[in-house]
Amino acid sequence: MPQPPYPHPSGARPPAIPKEFVPRHVAVVMDGNGRWANARGLPRTEGHRAGEASLLDVVAGAIEIGVEYVSAYAFSTENWARSPDEVRFLMGFNRDVLRRRRDLMNSWGVRVRWAGRRPRLWRSVISELEEAERLTAGNSTCTLTMCVNYGGRAEIADAAQAIAREVAAGRIKPDKVNEKLVAKYLDEPDLPDVDLFLRSSGEQRTSNFMIWQAAYAELVFLDEPWPDVDRRHLWRAVEEYARRDRRYGGAVDQPSGE
Questions:
Q1: pTM of the model
Q2: Which residue among 137, 183, 198, 221 is least enclosed by CB atoms within 10 Å?
Q3: Where is the signal peptide (predicted)?
Q4: Annotated binding-site residue numbers for Mg(2+)
């Protein structure tokens, strides 16, 4: 039996929200680590270190409130443009976080998945991602997708390339290519659409994260940098989500009473 996550130090408990109003899939952009560190006179890398505890606490909060899927933007295809020192740190840090935390995730019943491209990614990072996937494959409490060397446009381009090969080989007819087929060629085809898109540190953009899956996501932006975020921020975002009216392009007249 999975163990429940450790409680929040404050004793805070999740708000009572009916299950139908809890997002099934939350995508998280963990922004502001560098700015958090610089504001304290620390190297940017210390912000990334501090952000590890925030991710763990948010996953714990997701389990407590009933979120089934969390996708975390750990390293984007654009992050290679950062300084070589920061890239090296992030590669090693992602590898070591997986190694340090996979047993804890497994004890909570979390299934760890990986979305992203293999090229350029360190072999040691791929090894740890695959080992975490193997260890937690049978878990079902919550699925944590670590998006490492991931980009939304890259994911769609890779899917289009794979479909083009199938069409060229005569295994798919061009007129059979539709949204449902494209979705089958994404990195994690069984991942449900994003319901809640959460970003920290005050920036209000999606930054090429899950742009296919998040087409109809509700966006919530936090002012706090990622190292200052914990499960209580997630819960407040879920409360905001629960108040939203999701119409998926439809509309219903609501004439005012006279």
A1: 0.93
A2: 137
A3: none
A4: 31, 218
